[in-house]
Amino acid sequence: MTRTIAFLNQKGGVGKTTTVANVAAAMAAAGRSVGVIDLDPQAHLTLHLGIEPDGNNAPEQSVYDVLTEQPSSDGFATVADSTWIEAAPNLMVMPSEVDLAAVEVELADQPGRTRRLADALRHSEIAQCFDFLLLDCPPSLGLLTVNALAAAREVIVPMQAHFLALQGVARLLKTVGMVFEQVNPKLQVTGVVLCMFEGQTRLAAEVVENLETFFAGEREKEVPWRNCRVFKPPIRRNIKLAEAPSFGQSILEYDASCPGAQDYTDLAQTLMRQWDKF
Amino acid sequence: MTRTIAFLNQKGGVGKTTTVANVAAAMAAAGRSVGVIDLDPQAHLTLHLGIEPDGNNAPEQSVYDVLTEQPSSDGFATVADSTWIEAAPNLMVMPSEVDLAAVEVELADQPGRTRRLADALRHSEIAQCFDFLLLDCPPSLGLLTVNALAAAREVIVPMQAHFLALQGVARLLKTVGMVFEQVNPKLQVTGVVLCMFEGQTRLAAEVVENLETFFAGEREKEVPWRNCRVFKPPIRRNIKLAEAPSFGQSILEYDASCPGAQDYTDLAQTLMRQWDKF
Ligand SMILES: Nc1ncnc2c1ncn2[C@@H]1O[C@H](COP(=O)(O)OP(=O)(O)OP(=O)(O)O)[C@@H](O)[C@H]1O
Ligand SMILES: Nc1ncnc2c1ncn2[C@@H]1O[C@H](COP(=O)(O)OP(=O)(O)OP(=O)(O)O)[C@@H](O)[C@H]1O
Ligand SMILES: [Mg+2]
Ligand SMILES: [Mg+2]
After folding, report:
1. Is the CB of residue B79 less than 8 Å from the CB of residue B65?
2. How far from each other are the two terminal CA atoms of chain B, in whole angstroms?
3. N or C: which end of chain A has fewer CB within 10 A?
C-alpha cells in the first residue's frame, strides 16, 4: 500500500518544498517508487525538480486539471494518470501551475470540494503503484491544504526553530484535527522536521524543548498527533540546499557529499525504515 | 500626506513581517507618527509587537471587522478608528486575528471587495494623521494582498537572495500591474529589500545581479516598477532578529546595538530621507 504523506505548515519559507524534493529524491535513489504532488500555485516543487511550470515548455496538464475535473464525468479516472511526469528514475511529479491559485474561489460552493484530490488518486492506476506519495502544500490552511490532508494518511510538519514558526503549530494541529474528524479518520501526524537548523543558537534549543514538552504531554490523548515526534537529526542550514533548485536538481544530484545531502538521506532512511516495520 | 507602503511577497518566510515591525519601530523612535496593519491571518506582526491576537487578552476588533463591515452602514466610518491599538509611542497597530483567513471566501461575490481597506482608511481620522502607514501581507496574492495594493501608494518587496524567491518576482509584478491598471493608478514599486542576506555566498551575488539587471531593463517602460531599485545595504542574517519576536519586542528594544538593529535603522532612515525630498 502506498504511504501518502502531506508536508504542511502555513508558516511560509520553513523548508516544505526543499524537504519534499530531497526526501523524494533520496527515496527514489534507494530504489523506492515515489510520486510527488505540487499543490502550491508558486510551483516551486515543479521548478526544483527541473520542470518549467508555465510558458512554452509547460506540461499540458497539472494538478489544477485534476482538482477541477467534474467527478461525474468518465474522464475523471484518466485525468490524473495523464498528469504524471517522470522527473528522475523512480520519481514521478504531478506538476502545479499558476491557475491553481484560483481553485479556492472556483470550487467555493462545489460539493465534495475537499475530497477532489483523494477521489482522483483513488482512480489513478499510477498512484496505486507508488511506495511513497509526498504532497507539498502552499503556506496556508486553505482548500489546497485541506485536499492534501483528505488524501494523505500522514502529516509531516517542516519547521524552522524560530519563535514565529512555533506560534502556528497549534492552529495547524487544529486544522488537522478538523479534517481527522470530518473527512479523514485515518490521518495521523507522524512528526516534525526541523529545517535550516542552527544548533548553536539558544533560540533553537528553546524551540525544540518547547515542542518536545508539548508533544510529550499529548501522548495519552485521543488526538491524531499523539504519536508525533521531532525527527532527529535536524536538517542543518546549508547554502547548497538553496543553490540546488536553480539547477533544477535535488541536493543528491547537485552535491551528494554536502551536509544537506547527508541530512536528507538520513531523514529518508528513517522514513523508509519506519515503513518496513509496519 | 500619509505615505502608505505595502510590504508583499507571495514567497513565504522572506522577512515581510520582520521588516514591517522593525522599520515601523525605527521610524517611531525617530519621532514619526507610524501605523501598521497586519493583513496576515497568522497575526505575526501583531505578536511581534507584543499584542495577543487570539484568546482572553485579544483585542475586541481587528482588521477582519474593518474588511467585513458593510460599507453602506453609518458604522463604517467608526470601525477603523476603534481598531487601532498603541503598541509603542508614535506606533499604532491594526491587529489581525485568525478569522481573517475566511475573508477571501466570505467576500467572494461582494461588490468593491478589493477596495474595502482603501475605503475604510479614507474614513479613518487616525489613519490620516500618520506620517507612514505600513501594511504587512500574507504569503499569497489573494484578496488580502489585493486590498493592501488598492490602499497603498507604494510597494516594497522583502526578498531572500535565493533562487526560489527570485522565481516569484515576475508574478508579483504582474499582480501589481493588474491592480495599477484596474484599481489604483497611483501604485508604484519603490524597491526590493534583501533580507537574511548572506553576502559571502555566490548565490546571493547572482540573485542581486539578476535583480539589478532586470530592473535596469525596465527603466524606460511605462510600468509601475520602472523606478524600482534594490535597497542598499541589505538586511544581514542575524539570529537576534528571530529572537526579538518571542519577547514581543522590536529589534531596537531587544538589542539596539546588533547588526539587525543597525540594518533596519539604516533602511528606515533611507525611507524617511526619500520622503523628505518629495
Ligand atoms: N536547510 C536549508 N539551508 C539553507 N537554505 C535552505 C534550507 N532549506 C531550505 N532552504 C532555502 O530557504 C528557502 C525556503 O525554503 P522552501 O522554499 O523549501 O520553504 P517552503 O516552506 O516550501 O516555502 P513556501 O512557504 O514559500 O512554500 C528557499 O530559498 C530554500 O532554498
Ligand atoms: N535578517 C534575519 N536574520 C535572521 N532571521 C530572520 C531575519 N529576518 C527574519 N528572520 C526570521 O526568519 C523567519 C521568517 O521571517 P518573517 O516571518 O518575517 O517572514 P515573512 O515573509 O513575514 O513570513 P510569512 O510568509 O510566513 O508571512 C522568522 O522566524 C524571522 O524571525
Ligand atoms: Mg514551498
Ligand atoms: Mg509574515
Report:
1. yes
2. 11
3. C
- Residue that is written with C-alpha cell 502608505 in the block: B4
Cβ within 8 Å of residue B33, ≥6 positions away: B90, B129, B130, B131, B132
- Say if residues B36 and B134 touch (Cβ distance below 8 Å): yes
Q: Would you call A5 exposed, middle or buried from its count of C-beta atoms within 10 A (0-12, 13-18, 19+)? A: buried
Q: What is the 3-state secondary structure (H, E, C) of A3-68?
A: EEEEECCCCCCCCHHHHHHHHHHHHHHCCCCEEEEECCCCCHHHHHCCCCCCCCCCCCCCHHHHHH
Residue A110, φ and ψ in degrees, nearest 5: -85, 135
Question: Cα(B153)–Cα(B149) distance, rounded to whole angstroms?
Answer: 8
Question: Which element (helix H / strand E) includes A143?
Answer: helix A143-151
Instruction: Please name every residue paired with A6 in a beta bridge, in sequence order, or none if there are none.
Output: A135, A155
Residues of A in contact with B163 (CB under 8 A): 242-243, 245-246
Written as nine digits, the cell of B103 is 475573508
Per-residue model confidence (pLDDT) at position B73: 62
Confidence at residue A75, expressed as pLDDT on a 0 to 100 scale:
56
Q: Is the CB of B241 under 6 A from ligand 2?
A: yes
Q: Helices A143-151 & A116-123, crossing angle to 10 degrees?
A: 40
Write the pLDDT tens digit of every residue in A133-180. Answer: 999 999 999 999 999 999 999 999 999 999 988 888 989 999 999 999
Query: Three-state SS for A129?
Result: coil
Read off the pLDDT of each residue in B50-75 and give the average, rounded to a whole number.
Answer: 84
Q: Return the residue matching grid coordinates 467555493.
A: A108
Pairing of strands B132-136, B85-88: unpaired
Q: How far apart are CA B179 and CA B172, in angstroms?
A: 11
User: Helix and strand tally (H, E) in chain A?
Assistant: 14, 8
User: Where are the extended beta strands (E) located within chain B?
Assistant: 3-7, 34-38, 85-88, 91-94, 132-136, 154-160, 188-195, 229-230
d(CA B221, CA B4): 24
List the shell of residues around ion ligand 3, using CB closer than 5 Å: A 16-17, 44
Which of A140, A162, A246 is the closest to B242 by Cβ? A162
Residue B3: left if φ>0, alpha if ψ -120 to 50, beta else—which one? beta
How do A3-7 and A132-136 pair as beta strands?
Answer: parallel
Ligand 2 atom closest to Cα of residue B196: 1
Which secondary-structure segment (H or E) carries A195?
Answer: strand A188-195
Nearest ligand to the CA atom of B195: 2
Residues A68 and A11: beta-carbon distance below 8 Å: no
CB B238 within 8 A of CB B264: no
Low-confidence ranges of chain A (pLDDT < 70): 71-78, 275-278
A240 lines ligand 1 (CB under 6 A): no
Classify residue B31 as left (phi > 0), alpha (psi -120 to 50) or beta. Answer: left
* Amino acid residing at A148: A
Task: Report the nearest-CA residue for atom 23 of ligand 1.
Answer: A13
